[in-house]
């Protein structure tokens, strides 16, 4: 079993890449600077997902609580195990409180279950996030955050089929609306629930359960248009490939009615 404080060679490589990218941000053009920021963001997500996997290794495959103390009913002892966060410390605490100072938000990150595996609050946000933002990444609801009637909340890595195809973290930018709880989407409807992030050149960065990270650029103009509204609940968007691709990566291939 690996220790939470273990620093691997992979950690060192990712850290050095991040530092090198940061040092070169001022030496490239505007488009190059944006690409460099995206690369740093991907490196952050790589580190967070490594920490996410180390936590599971140290806890017999149990996935860290992906909630941020929003779904309070899930912390009650009478909740069924498959839908409970009882006695599960969230990966970060209530850093989304609008009355909290930056110092309090950072302390909420340090108090979370994942921080002993990261030890760096800067890993929790993209460089494109606003100066007051302390966190820009969210866990998708399916990864031990919140289950719904249309999708199963996974609580152990043994439950994840094809981990290279399943989301863990999504770069939500500094959209306070989605910093509560996790990020979610419908599994069987042609519409968005939470707005898809569009701050990385009309796309976003995402990590997967096997540890790899990807940049997804949205291909349907309806995705970008709705994402820019930064509100929940889109109109029906039949034939939107972005929606279907995201649904499968979040919930698995759930059959549609």
* Number of DSSP strand runs: 4
Q: Give the helix level as a range of percent.
A: 25-40%
Structural class: alpha+beta
Overall mean pLDDT stands at: 87
The Rg value, from CA coordinates, equals 18 Å
Describe what you observe in this structure:
A hairpin with a 4-residue loop joins strand 3 and strand 4. It is built from five helices and four strands. It has one domain. Helices cover 29% and strands 7% of the residues. Helix 1 packs antiparallel against helix 2. It has 257 residues and is an alpha+beta fold. The N terminus is likely disordered. It has a four-stranded antiparallel β-sheet, covered by helices on one side. The protein starts with 8 loop residues before the first helix and ends in a 6-residue tail after the last helix.
Chain-wise SSE layout:
Layout: H1 9-24, H2 30-58, H3 102-110, E1 137-139, E2 167-171, E3 203-208, E4 213-217, H4 221-229, H5 241-251
Antiparallel strand pairs: 1-2, 2-3, 3-4
Helix pairs in contact: 1-2
């Amino acid at each position: 079993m690996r220790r939470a404080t273990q620093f691997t060679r992979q950690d060192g490589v990712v850290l050095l890449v991040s530092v090198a990218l940061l040092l070169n941000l001022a030496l490239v053009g505007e488009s190059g600077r944006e690409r460099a920021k995206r690369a740093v963001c991907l490196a952050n997500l790589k580190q967070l997902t490594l920490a996410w996997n180390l936590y599971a290794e140290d806890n017999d495959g149990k996935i860290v609580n992906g909630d941020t103390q929003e779904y309070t009913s899930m912390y009650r002892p009478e909740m069924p195990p498959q839908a409970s966060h009882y006695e599960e410390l969230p990966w970060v605490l209530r850093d989304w409180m609008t009355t909290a100072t930056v110092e309090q938000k950072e302390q909420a990150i340090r108090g979370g279950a994942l921080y002993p595996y990261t030890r760096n609050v800067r890993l929790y946000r993209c460089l494109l996030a606003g100066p007051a933002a302390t966190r820009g990444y969210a866990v998708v609801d399916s990864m031990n955050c919140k289950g719904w009637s249309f999708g199963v909340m996974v609580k152990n890595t043994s439950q994840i089929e094809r981990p290279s195809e399943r989301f863990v973290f999504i770069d939500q930018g500094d959209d306070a609306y989605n910093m509560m709880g996790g990020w979610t989407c419908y599994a069987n409807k042609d519409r968005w629930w939470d707005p898809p992030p569009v701050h990385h050149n009309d796309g976003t960065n995402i990590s997967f359960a096997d540890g790899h990270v990807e940049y997804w650029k949205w291909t349907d103009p309806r995705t970008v248009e709705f994402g820019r509204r930064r509100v929940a609940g889109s109109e029906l968007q039949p034939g939107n490939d972005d929606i279907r691709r995201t649904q499968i990566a979040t919930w698995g291939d759930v059959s549609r009615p």
